[in-house]
User: Fold RING-type E3 ubiquitin transferase from Leptonychotes weddellii.
Amino acid sequence: MPSEQHLPHSLCLYLTEGSSPVSAEQSKVLSAVEDRMDELGASIAQSRRTVALIKSAALAERERVSRLFAEAAAILQGFQTEVLGFIEEGEATMLGRSQGDLRRQEEQRSRLSRARHNLGQVPEADSVSFLQGLLALRLALEEGCGPGTGPPRELSFTKSSQAVRAVREVLTEACASQGERLRGPGGEEEEDLRKLGTEADAESRDPDSTNNLESEAPRDYFLKFAYIVDLDSDTADKYLQLFGTKGVKRVLCPINYPESPTRFTHCEQVLGEGALDRGTYYWEVEIIEGWVSVGVMAEDFSPQEPYDRGRLGRNAHSCCLQWNGRSFSVWFHGLEAPLPHPFSPTVGICLEYANRALAFYAVRDGKMSLLRRLKASRARRSSTLASSIEPFQSRLDSHFAGLFTRRLKPAFFLESVDAHLQIGPLKKSCISVLKRR
Assistant:
């Protein structure tokens, strides 16, 4: 039997004083056990409800996702049917024309062959029959239809693959973007982005200094600040047709969009989703056709403003780069500054929030060529120097910094009836996904 010094105190009391203290201790322990079992029962019930809720929510989400994928597949299937029908229609039209030419030419050749054969069978002494055969050969030669139209200069249905390729690019970009949103950025990625933003801010602290964002630089440098722009359909004017979230074209017939308080009503404009308020952002736009303006607009700017004040760059709440079919220019607060640079179908936009600057670049062969960097210049003390500043820069000095007190959105204005643009995929090569005309 173990010594008393190794036994629990309550058991020692039992050995020395009887069973009454043990009964009290037993009641106390049993009571605590009962309380703990009640707590565990309630907790188990809650955990079971949580498990059931998770399973139910996951099942419902699976059903929603499956339904949406089925709808997306139906849309793609319908588009596939439309494209294949377009090819078949083009093929039938062109084949009908070409096969008709072929049939007429074969018939003429057959007539000529028969007439020539008949003429060869006439004896030379039979001059009357010979003249008749020669006349028949000449008539067969004259009644010919001439050469065919030849191969067509362009097969209209071959542009179908370009359209499908554009859809594939949009889907690929959208799937990658939404996949990243689902997974969320990792800690290292967030830290890298924070460091890049800090370095960029440090480089551009002096307003009049030159840095990588102001000079020619490899495109890879700007891709560190890449921002995925998706068009917001709730802001699109009724005369703008969206192609997914990346393409937009101005059309003649209005589109029956649903009512939205953020929709432009007097200007053919559309904004990007999401508002920007800190850091450095870079995106690219491909000008496919027409007069196009690209830039930024304050999130709180009223989309019901009239045409003269609501257009991109014609107010203090927005600024832009415009291509008017002949030349580039920049607009801010109703003033325009022409640019001497030649046309570039791909334009890069870099928004430096901490430095309160917006830069536009021509993108060619992996290189960035600065078109214009909009920024308020350092205050000048000399009134003589101040009076020599161009009106556009003076307007920037007075009002441009105020634009950055607001949350900004990528903005697009399609000015001409044939205007068409595409938000470029931010990849290593800058190759159009659509055919430029």
Remarks:
- The mean pLDDT is 79.
- Residues 1-143 form one domain.
- Residues 20-121 form the longest helix (102 residues).
